[in-house]
Amino acid sequence: MRSDLPKVLHKIAGEPMLRHVLAAVESLTPNRVVVVVGPDMDAVSLVAAPHVTTIQAERLGTGHAARCAVPHLVDFAGLDCDTDVLVVFGDTPLLTGETLQRLLARRRQGDAPAIVGLAFRPEDPAHYGRVLLDENQRVDRIVEFADANREERSVNLCNAGPLIGDAGLLMDLLGRLEAENAQGEYYLTDIYALAREVGQAAGIVEADARETMGVNSKTELAEAEHAMQGRLRRRAMEQGVTLIDPASVWLSADTEFGRDVIVEPNVVIGTGVRLGDRVEVRSFSHLEGADVASDCRIGPYARLRPGSALEPSVRIGNFVEIKNATLGFGAKVNHLSYVGDSRVGENANIGAGTITCNYDGFSKHRTEIGAGAFIGSNTALVAPVSIGTNVIVGAGSTITNSVAAEALTIARGRQQDIPGGAQRLRKSQAAAKRRADEKNRSDEKNNATVKSGKSAKQES
């Protein structure tokens, strides 16, 4: 990935790749999940929590990685009930719970293959391991590209990686793996041939090639993001969301939509956003960490930052930024304003150009605006400050003290009109400009005379 960030922590749709994989696994309600990580990957362990993590101290292949998890699973081996171990890879963020459920269902079918793997048929098999089937369409073995001959490389059924198998058998076979191959690694794929040697059958489930893609570069990360966005958009529209131009709208994996939501083109919805019924998000708006109740209208060109909570029927207009603030029912902030660390009461109106001055260079402070308050345009509210119910604040005011309910407050310099002052000012400015122009011409003439004198002296 050419990055200091561990590969599985690179984000797809706002969440680390590992979280997407874990979400798919968690949909099966497993008894235990063990995440195998490399050394010094505490950040990965934090994302994996509350699941168990174990360290693969040496990078000796996928089979070795799976073997590192065995000490955390031995209590499941040999149980009388059906107990399976599922192995998946942390860099396959498009893998779905539905596909994993198909693997489990294949294990539970009448012929009950001891191991079931996931396979796919890509347009270009490239360097994927090949799945070789016997005459009964069972897995004979999987051969890695580096170890395959020409005939084996001509097979287009490829190994996707994930597999599920009987807990006791799988852990036994992991212990039998050897590193006798071109890479000198313990291949998880050798499990299939080992199973055949002990008289156990292995089956296969095919999945869409896009779903099984692994991410190993920034290019593939972008491809996975593109695929995930397509999936999220389709899901949203299936839920009844109107995306006027789906391709220009970017969603997060955890976005929640109510009924009859409308999202206009060129909108970005980050993580932690919930949109209630009949919300309209207009073009070029950016939302993150915001809870938006029903019948709100946002944008265009609006930004909701984390901690924003909009109660029903709030209006947020163009070039308005809201951060860590709650806006009550019917409140309006329609133009060119910043409201941060605040509570705005119901039906309050915030005029154009209003800002809450919430940061004094050391700490953040809150602003309280009462219900029905009217804040005039171009007002600065210097926190901490409280504006009472139904207060009217005159345009252009800088409010530094709290204002009691029902008050009219104006805090600005007094206007002073000087009769005829404009004419006198223009005359004085014109006279000053003439004097300056005359001085410049005189200086230029003197400079020319000095230069001429120097030239004559040099000639003599």
How is this fold's topology laid out?
Elements: E1 11-12, E2 15-16, H1 17-26, E3 34-37, H2 42-48, E4 52-55, H3 62-69, E5 84-87, H4 97-107, E6 115-120, E7 130-133, E8 139-143, H5 150-153, E9 158-166, H6 167-176, H7 190-197, E10 202-206, H8 218-238, E11 242-243, E12 256-257, E13 262-263, E14 268-269, E15 274-275, E16 280-281, E17 286-287, E18 290-292, E19 297-298, E20 303-304, E21 308-310, E22 315-318, E23 321-327, E24 332-335, E25 338-344, E26 349-350, E27 355-357, E28 367-369, E29 374-375, E30 380-382, E31 385-387, E32 392-393, E33 398-399, E34 408-409, H9 421-459
Parallel strand pairs: 3-4, 6-10, 11-13, 12-15, 13-16, 14-17, 15-18, 16-19, 17-20, 18-21, 19-22, 20-23, 21-23, 22-24, 23-25, 24-26, 25-28, 26-29, 27-30, 28-31, 29-32, 30-33, 32-34
Antiparallel strand pairs: 1-2, 5-9, 6-9, 7-8
